[in-house]
Amino acid sequence: MPTRIKFQTSVTSAGIAVWLGGLLLALTACRPPALPHKTFLVMGTVFTVTLPADRADYLEPAGVLSANALYELENLLSFYRPDSDIGRLNQAAGAAPTPVAPPTLAVLRAARRYGELSAGAFDITVAPLLQTWGLRGGAPPRQPPAAAELDAARRRVDFRRLEIGNQTARLAQPDMQLDLGGIAKGFAVDEVARIMVKHGLTNVLLNLGGNLRALGASAPGQAWRIAVQNPFVPGQVLGVLELRDGEAAATSGNYERFVTIDGRRYAHILDPRTGRPTSGMAGVTVIGGGADAAMDADALSTTLFVMGIESGAGFLKSHFSRHAALFVPDRQPLEIHVTAEFAARFTPAPDQAGCIRLIP
How many angstroms separate the CA atoms of 152 and 131, rounded? Predict the structure, then answer.
């Protein structure tokens, strides 16, 4: 873990959107005073901690506490570090169980639960398929993978073959690989939120690559507000959403990460059940509360993106009734489908109000 951390510190005027490197834009309160924040790079993305104006003196400790926790988790959960817990598990696939740290066990257990509830729509063993489509570094294939190639990769994808013990984990089949890209950032945000509360920082907005969690308020009587990005128009927002104390939000979209093969763009979110990039959705935003609010929102945004509007909304109602969602299908003219709970918290941009569709 680095011993010296270089922060970018800035103050944002209220009411002005700030691009924070993720799939959501963090908005400040409706009126002055300005809100100070610190930003640094970690886990392959941008992290920002924002405090109310009257808590600016706490920025430095908030930044240091966040950095210490996030760099430690990156050392455990990174797919790209061979000495991380995930790297060691991948190298030992098919061999003996591997000792791993308690945070790693916690996120693996949660990921298995999401896999079971979603019948495989969420699967952290999807890495072989991502590599087949050129979505894990290297040059993309010249042509879409053939059926035989996809079948071979799919035989190495099955969350049920992840075995979890009291202090160990194991991939039961050789050549399997874990990739926590759909859950690790949310898990990390929840961990940072717990640390903030432990140290008495109870009015904070955390943003790790578009995985957000709000604590307290941005100012007395004012909830934290975020804006959901239009997946078709860079820099344009669909509307503004309020986050209450303890709540989190996450977005999955097809507009930031993709691969182009033979002139066609494929989204980075694959359906583990078919082995192919998900089609039909442009963006999904999920909000919710609870002890693991950010982790749930992170995993659910990916799961609902794979499932689509009808199946996704039904899944949410059956298994995560404390959460709400917004769906944007990948078609024109623009449609914004929202659950009733989401609609109650969402103010669409004036030019988007006619695009709202309430999910029954």
Answer: 12
Q: Name the nearest CA neighbour of 9 among 49, 45, 42, 52.
A: 49
CA distance 46 to 53: 22
CA 300 to chain centroid, in Å, comes to 9
Q: Which amino acid is at 322?
A: R
Q: Which of 117-131, 186-200, 202-216, 260-274 has the least mean pLDDT? A: 260-274
Asked whether 333 and 283 are in contact (CB, 8 A), the reply is: no
Distance CA 287, CA 310 (A): 18
Q: How crowded is residue 224: how many other Cβ atoms within 10 Å of its Cβ?
A: 30
The highest-level CATH class for domain 77-171 is mainly alpha
| Residue given tokens 């509830």 in the structure block | 117
Q: What is the mean pLDDT of residues 195-203?
A: 97
Question: What does each C-alpha distance from 59 to 7, 130, 146, 202 come to in angstroms?
Answer: 10, 38, 52, 13
Confidence of residue 19 (pLDDT cuts 50, 70, 90): very low
- φ, ψ of residue 39 in degrees (nearest 5): -135, 140
Please name the residue that has the structure tokens 């990460």: 257
The tens digit of pLDDT for each residue in 120-151 reads: 999 999 999 999 998 887 678 888 999 999 99
Of the candidates 244, 278, 262, 281, the residue with the CA atom closest to the CA atom of residue 123: 278
DSSP 8-state symbol, 274: T
Name the token pair of 322. 């404390």
For residue 263, how many other CB atoms are within 10 A of its CB? 5
Edge-to-edge strand ranges of the sheet holding 356-358: 8-12, 35-42, 45-50, 204-208, 211-215, 248-253, 281-288, 323-329, 336-338, 356-358
Domain spans, the chain: 77-171
- Provide the 8-state DSSP code for 138: S
